[in-house]
Specification:
Elements (H helix, E strand, L loop, with lengths): L22 H14 L2 H10 L8 H15 L4 H9 L2 H15 L1 H16 L7 H12 L3 H4 L3 H17 L16 H7 L2 E2 L16 E2 L1
Parallel strand pairs: 1-2
Length: 210
């Protein structure tokens, strides 16, 4: 009998309060990566040249750091697609990137947003996010310890992302994801499929493990 204590769950990263979906910023930095193929170089070049046109140096550093953090969750193939993608396709790829980079967002997307859509619920409210966080806080002390103001920022930013990705309307209605064929193919290339982050009935075959 193995009496070893169960491993503690991985702590959630909760640093997604800078910007929202960051699709515009990503459109500036993704081509730089495809030339340099090194994220540290992209970060240094973007900050030095103020590529994101931030008003202050500190703001520029934060925006670049966060944009690079999310873009680096995409594969090189996805980044090549991103550069030539439409605005809607970029938004969908950046939502997938945020879900992959931040487990809390990804689990909320899969366990609440997509699940409600599949159960034919038509809305997604702030209360659903708060209930989701409370349930996760049982196993994650970092969630149990956050201040109400921090929870409000996290919640607000997640819903801004959902709005910019056209997955939830301003009125809180769930909007079925209208994904292009090439985005579906890119998202389906992973196991589990990154389509799990979207309100869509599509359930593709397994791809390459993340």
């Amino acid at each position: 009998m193995n009496d070893a204590p169960a491993a503690a769950p991985r702590r959630y990263a909760l640093s997604f309060t800078t910007g929202a979906l960051l699709a515009r910023e990503a459109a500036t930095l993704a081509p730089v990566y495809l030339v340099r193929r090194e994220w540290e170089q992209v970060r240094d070049h973007a900050v030095a040249g103020n590529l994101l046109q931030a008003r202050t140096h500190s703001t520029g550093v934060r925006l670049v750091r966060e944009t690079v953090k999310r873009l680096s969750a995409l594969t090189d193939t996805e980044l090549e697609l991103f550069v030539e993608a439409t605005g809607s396709e970029r938004a969908h790829l950046m939502w997938a990137a945020a879900c992959c980079r931040y487990e809390l967002i990804g689990e909320f997307a899969e366990e609440v947003l997509r699940e409600r859509y599949l159960l034919l619920a038509t809305t997604l409210a702030y209360e659903e996010f708060d209930s989701f966080v409370r349930a996760k806080a049982i196993w994650h002390e970092e969630l149990a310890a956050i201040k109400p103001s921090t929870l409000q920022k996290l919640r607000s930013n997640v819903f801004k992302m959902l709005g910019e990705a056209e997955l939830v309307s301003e009125a809180g209605n769930i909007m079925p994801a209208v994904l292009s064929e090439r985005v579906v193919a890119a998202l389906s290339a992973h196991t589990p499929s990154d389509l799990r982050f979207f309100p869509t009935p599509q359930s593709p075959a397994a791809g390459v493990p993340r």
